[in-house]
């Protein structure tokens, strides 16, 4: 009888039928939960950061390809703009940098000779000068502009060399005997037009000669 009661109240040992493992103590359960949480977090980290899905890889490749193509297009566009600007500058330079023709040289030479023979006074930078000194001064400016290829026409010579002072910007003036002073640009332009008339009439044949 005693043995029967002892068997009823005794717990089966490990390996025997009916053995149930005892529950872990609270501290052990906490340790197991922490370990399980760490394992789960590590698995999640590896899945997210170290094993991206194919869709993410494809998206990243697309972004890199688009960025690379955009940079290439921007580089090509910048090169095109530089080439176009250089071409425009060369066209402008070729248009402005021209040597005067033979006719233009003759006209400018005549203007110098006419000024020397006129006996008029030439006003520049606050004082009057005789015609020979004035012609010598304008010839120096003409040689400088000629070296820079800035005198393609007689009008350009008058405007850039015989109109105003390069230092002060004040206009030149011419005063002849018995006449009031006028701007040198008007004086030279009037003489150029007068000298061109007989030259044009010689170049143009009469109607009866045709």
Short description:
By secondary structure, the chain is mainly alpha-helical.
Strand order across the largest sheet: 2-1-3-4
Structural class: mainly alpha
- Using only C-alpha atoms, the radius of gyration works out to 51 Å
Distance between the termini: 162 Å
Shape: elongated
Number of strands: 4
How much helical structure, as a percent, in the residues?
A: 55-70%
Strand count, sense and closure of the main sheet? 4 strands, antiparallel
Percent of residues in beta strands: 5-15%
Unreliable spans are 23-27, 206-210
Question: How many helical stretches?
Answer: 7
Overall mean pLDDT: 74
What's the order of the H and E elements? HHHHEEHHEEH
Question: Which helices and strands appear, and what pairs or packs with what?
Answer:
Blueprint: H1 2-9, H2 26-50, H3 54-96, H4 102-118, E1 121-124, E2 127-129, H5 131-147, H6 154-161, E3 173-175, E4 182-183, H7 184-203
Antiparallel strand pairs: 1-2, 1-3, 3-4
Overall description:
It contains 7 helices and 4 strands. A hairpin with a 6-residue loop joins strand 3 (173-175) and strand 4 (182-183). Residues 23-27 and 206-210 have low confidence and may be disordered. Strands 2-1-3-4 form a 4-stranded antiparallel beta sheet. Helix 4 (102-118) packs across helix 7 (184-203). It is mainly alpha-helical and 210 residues long. The chain has helices at residues 2-9, 26-50, 54-96, 102-118, 131-147, 154-161, 184-203; strands at residues 121-124, 127-129, 173-175, 182-183. It is 66% helix and 6% strand.
């Amino acid at each position: 009888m005693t043995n029967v009661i002892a068997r009823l109240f005794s717990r089966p040992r490990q390996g025997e039928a009916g053995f149930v493992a005892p529950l872990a103590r609270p501290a052990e359960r906490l340790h197991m939960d922490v370990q399980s949480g760490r394992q789960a977090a590590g698995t999640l980290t590896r899945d997210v950061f170290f094993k991206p899905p194919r869709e993410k890889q494809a998206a990243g490749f697309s972004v890199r390809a688009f960025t690379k193509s955009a940079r290439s297009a921007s580089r090509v566009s910048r090169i095109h703009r530089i080439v176009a600007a250089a071409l425009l500058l060369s066209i402008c330079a070729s248009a402005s940098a021209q040597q005067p023709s033979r006719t233009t040289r003759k006209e400018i030479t005549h203007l110098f000779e006419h000024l020397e023979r006129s006996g008029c006074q030439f006003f520049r930078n606050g004082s009057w000068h005789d015609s020979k000194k004035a012609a010598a001064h304008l010839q120096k400016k003409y040689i400088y502009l000629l070296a820079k290829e800035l005198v393609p026409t007689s009008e350009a010579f008058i405007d850039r060399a015989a109109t105003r002072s390069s230092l002060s910007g004040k206009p030149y003036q011419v005063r002849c005997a018995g006449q009031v002073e006028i701007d040198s640009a008007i004086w030279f332009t009037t003489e150029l037009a007068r000298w061109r008339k007989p030259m044009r009439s010689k170049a143009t044949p009469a109607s009866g000669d045709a």
